[in-house]
Amino acid sequence: MAGEIESIHTTHAAAPGGHYTQAVAHQGVLYVSGQLPVRADGSHSVDQPFEVQACIALDNLMAILSAAGRRPSDLLKVTVYVAGIEHWPAFDRIYARYLGEHRPARAVVPVPALHHGYLIEIEALAGSERTS
């Protein structure tokens, strides 16, 4: 594989709970691992409403983007897994608040269940690192 693979880690997002890293950068593309709504301090939010869980997962994504020198406007593709498609409208509203006018490609995938009983998981691809 040509080029270096750089692991990205920030203490401002949840630490990985398995054999993976928060994100990797390779040839100008940032690949962000699935982010559950686990707080940066490691505390769980599985008992919280969907809207709270969505904000925590998006906060993790934003922290990882920042640690990698990216901004929300660098997002190219976002994949969202939701346990229950009835959460789609609430997610769409919250997502729009986080991204403003930027509209990357996106898929919202309904799933029967997520790890630990969470209601949302978000993974993403972002473009080139900012130099300023």
From TrEMBL:
InterPro entries: RutC-like_sf, YjgF/YER057c/UK114. GO terms for molecular function: hydrolase activity. Its EC number is 3.5.-.-. It comes from the Bacteria. The keyword Hydrolase applies. It is an enzyme of class 3 (hydrolase). Keywords: Hydrolase. PANTHER family: 2-IMINOBUTANOATE/2-IMINOPROPANOATE DEAMINASE RIDA, PROTEIN HMF1-RELATED. Belongs to the RutC family. This is RidA family protein. It comes from Pseudomonas viciae.
